[in-house]
Amino acid sequence: MSRVCNKAPSLPDGSVAEQSLYERVDGPIATGSAHFMRAGSELHLMHSDLELNDVRQAALRVRCAAAAVRAALVEYRTSHRIAQELGFYPVHDERLRAAGGGTAPVRATLDAARESDLVQLDDVDVETIALRYEAGGDEAAYGHFVTELTGFSTELDGFAERADEAPAADWQRLAWQFLTAFDRIRIYGQTLAVINILGMTPAAVVGTGNGRSNEI
Fold it and tell me: Among candidates 24, 11, 182, which has minimal Cα distance to 88?
């Protein structure tokens, strides 16, 4: 079971059936996140290759990153489908509401997480995510993640097909764009993990940071 990307690491107060439900939804997310982070590694190494003027290796990195993102999407979509088919989202949303005293504690959790250096968000980001949960719960929030990653995958695949012949101007522009897009989606996914895990125990995020982000 994933320690960082699942929705609930332990449910001591839940039934065996409910625990099994979480495990079935979490399993593909953990595998998908492993593929996703490998894609990020390839994209960062792509920049190293370009700095060394090794375009052939950089093109290979792009293809590897594209393949890793496609593999991640298979897992993420599987989790989403299982969650919908088994009625997971209402169960999880109710747990979040119970932890927040009637309302999913999205804003409080993210504010505490920011103070503890667990997420990098501004006030607009926090409000956007909170409204997404209020409108459609975890299903809407996670569905947005899958949609964003799908769009990113399409763009990455398109460039990967022609990376070997791409002119320098394309590399100079797209290399940064891909890394920026990846980081944006990663931060959003990281935010969902914080909400889904620590939102059930908001006090868990208090006092865990080193405060460096507030000393700049």
Answer: 24
